[in-house]
Amino acid sequence: MKQLGAAIIGCGAIYPLHARAIAAMQGVQLLAVVDSNPAAAAEAAREFGGQPLTDYRELLNRTDIDVVHLCTPHSQHAEMAVALLQAGKHVLTEKPLAVDLPSARRMVEAAERSRGQLGVVFQNRYNETSRHIKQTIDSGILGPLVCMKGTVTWHRSESYYTDSSWRGRWATEGGGLLINQAIHTLDLLQWFGGEIASVKGSVTTDVLDGVIEVEDTAHACIRFSNNARGLFYGSNAYLVNTPVELELVFEQGTLTQRRDSLYLWKEGRETLLNEPFAITEGAKSYWGTGHKMLIQDFYEHVSTGRSFWLDGREGLKALELITQIYSSSASRMIHPSVT
User: Where is the Gfo/Idh/MocA-like oxidoreductase N-terminal domain (predicted)?
Assistant: First the structure.
């Protein structure tokens, strides 16, 4: 891997995972950390190195910065990514792409006109269980996929929102549970199921009404073009963060993810296929372990000049699905797939 200079914008909860992944790679050096809060930038620089900055635009003309990580509030992704891509930088952004589809599509278009690449952090696609499920689907070893379900039951307190002015607001977060916590599970469902034919869903605010503008609970029924059906339920109204649960029913067997282990039920027997993952240092258990692998893979593609597979157009799919659920809830009707 050729020597690459990196910068991270946003020094909140997620940036240490990015910084540690950068530190673990040969041929990559963290040269700048950016946060509008000078103290946060200074603290990040002390811990991980790099020059502390408060304005991301200082990166635009720096020839030593090749890759920029976006770990900022959702509403800042589009402006920053477009400017950085226009400057020829490679951009790796945390989910979601943006707060809405028009903003996200501007990012995709900017990437297609840039010599830089746009990557999206859907790290759960790199989890061993997720890769095993996808390989099973693609191989057809259990026959066609019939149906699947995904469940996310987590806890977010009032202080989680009141301590961060951008969370819980349509303008700055773009939604609630769906776009922040459950987006990874929805991304996996659409990745497993393929092209979506229609979506019917609803969102509610069950326990945080008066605290947030957005939803804390949602459900959806997704019909895929291959006639498979997906069900989703998610809520931030639980009192603990439990592992995401997935179940995929095939004509010849069932795969179930429970507590991050993957089981196969076939011919009356249940077999353990994958053990639980080991928790990455400093990570929350429900984030999974894929951040490091995804970041390393992105740099490998950038270094060798290959197109990163989890690019803007691929990352757009989860936001399209979320938009359909919001639209269906608002209209109380089945919403056709976004094209």
Answer: 6-120
Cα distances (angstroms) measured from residue 62 to each of 46, 73, 194: 21, 23, 40
pLDDT of residue 332: 80
Residues of the chain with CATH 3.40.50.720: 4-122+295-311
| Span 124-285+314-336 CATH architecture | 2-Layer Sandwich (3.30)
d(CA 203, CA 236): 12
pLDDT at 275: 79
pLDDT in tens, 192-232: 999 999 999 999 999 999 999 999 999 999 999 999 999 99
* Residue type, position 99, single letter: V
The residue type at 113: R
Helix residue ranges per DSSP H, 287-332:
290-304, 312-331
4-122+295-311 architecture in CATH? Answer: 3-Layer(aba) Sandwich (3.40)
Query: Phi and psi dihedrals of 239, rounded to 5?
Result: -110, 0
